[in-house]
């Protein structure tokens, strides 16, 4: 948010981890992050890395230890749930841990995201169904099974 005109991360810079995330997916992600190339100064982010299975986490740590020697200027952020801080990945990288609390007001964060996700010409775009011509939206319900 410090550079509002910078684009949001692209699909190759973010890995959304689940218990079903495979070791191969993590390996491809870490190779993109840790092997130097002419891709610029991207910031790679693993979201919910605490949800990776034990086997995948072990392989990820081994690969990280091996590949980090090839690039001393990598930029990797690993986000985990603080309630699962004793799972494998948060424990292995605990020496780098930083407790993060959003520093900006919610309205400012929403404005930033609206700037990046609004559609300029919504004439025939599906964005016309979302509020303020946004190209993304969240639909939620407190009741299950209501077709959302």
UniProtKB/TrEMBL annotation:
Transmembrane segments: none annotated. GO terms for biological process: negative regulation of non-canonical Wnt signaling pathway; sprouting angiogenesis; ubiquitin-dependent protein catabolic process. One of its GO terms (cellular component) is cytosol. GO terms for molecular function: ATP hydrolysis activity; ligase activity; ubiquitin-protein transferase activity. It comes from the Eukaryota. Keywords: Ligase. The keyword Nucleotide-binding does not apply. InterPro entries: RNF213. This is RN213 ligase. It comes from Pygoscelis papua. The gene is Rnf213_2.
């Amino acid at each position: 948010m410090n550079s509002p005109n910078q684009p949001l991360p692209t699909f190759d810079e973010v890995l959304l981890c689940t218990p079903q995330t495979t070791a191969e997916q993590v390996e491809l992600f870490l190779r993109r992050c840790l092997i130097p190339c002419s891709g610029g100064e991207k910031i790679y982010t693993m979201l919910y890395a605490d949800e990776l299975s034990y086997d995948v986490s072990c392989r990820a740590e081994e690969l990280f230890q091996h590949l980090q020697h090839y690039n001393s200027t990598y930029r990797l952020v690993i986000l985990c749930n603080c309630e699962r801080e004793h799972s494998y990945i948060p424990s292995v990288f605990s020496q780098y841990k930083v407790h993060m609390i959003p520093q900006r007001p919610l309205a400012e964060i929403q404005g930033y995201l609206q700037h990046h996700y609004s559609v300029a010409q919504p004439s025939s775009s599906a964005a016309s169904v979302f509020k303020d011509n946004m190209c993304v939206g969240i639909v939620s319900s407190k009741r299950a099974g209501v077709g959302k």
